[in-house]
Amino acid sequence: MPSIVKDWTARTRHQVQKRIGYRFLRTKRFGIDWLDDAARIAREGWHPSFAKLDVVFDVGANIGQTASKLVQRISPKSIYSFEPVQSTFVQLQANTKTLSSVHCLNYGLSDVNANSSIHIYQSSVYASTCDRTPVMSPENETFLRTETIKLQTLDKVRSELGVEKIDLLKIDTEGADLRTIRGARESLQSKAIGLIVFEFYRPSDLSGTNGTLFPVDETLVSHGYRLVAFYTDHVHPDRSTGIYNALYMPEPE
User: What are the pLDDT tens digits along the chain (253 aa)?
Assistant: First the structure.
């Protein structure tokens, strides 16, 4: 492209951004927005069984931020939003009551079908069944209380709900993402789950697997899934800890 055209394009883009507040991004680049990438993968038919994002499991739904984003941007037929903390669940219901595709469920998804303890912090997004993660523990000054919640495995829930396949599985369980993945063993093995996005804090940690990437990667790869892209939400300025997401998809058979 001639330099004069490039300069004109850059100036025009800047003026539009300045006037209407929108920023233009190169849509062919992966690793910027996981939902954009997931929609593109489905649209372009990377896997024949998951060409549409019709059914979504939103695990760790909090107050409905992801559910609202999903409705606005890709309009799935069904979004199952799982939130185990009762006070947060009430807010989730209130925030999604006008969204007919959202189904709110007051329990979490893990590797057991049982009651468990969850540690709750000042910000509702920080609630975890893990005793410790690279970013939080009950000794943290923002810790509030511990409650008892209900947990179920994804395999059991999918069967009970009569969901044949999950096109998109989003997991944000504050360090317990590996447990959620382990509770989906049968669904992963049968490729009943399409795209998977989960949060992590570090690639690995000497203190354990909570909130780390490598154990989840190993589990997903063993079931025939592969990495697509990473997404950085936050990087700590003086510690080797951040908030990241990773997007995986099944290998076409």
Answer: 555 545 555 555 555 455 555 555 555 789 999 999 999 999 999 999 999 999 999 999 999 999 999 999 999 999 999 999 999 999 999 999 999 999 999 999 999 999 999 888 876 667 888 777 767 666 776 788 889 999 999 999 999 999 999 999 999 998 899 999 999 999 999 999 999 999 999 999 877 788 899 999 999 999 999 999 999 998 888 777 889 999 999 998 7
Give 7: exposed, middle or buried? Use CB within 10 Å, 0-12, 13-18, 19+.
Answer: exposed
Q: Strands 166-171, 127-128: parallel, antiparallel or unpaired by DSSP? A: unpaired
Calpha distance 17→11 (Å, rounded): 10
Contact 229, 211 (CB under 8 A): no
What DSSP element (H or E) covers 180? helix 177-182
Residue 5: C-alpha distances to residues 1, 40, 226 (Å)? 7, 28, 39
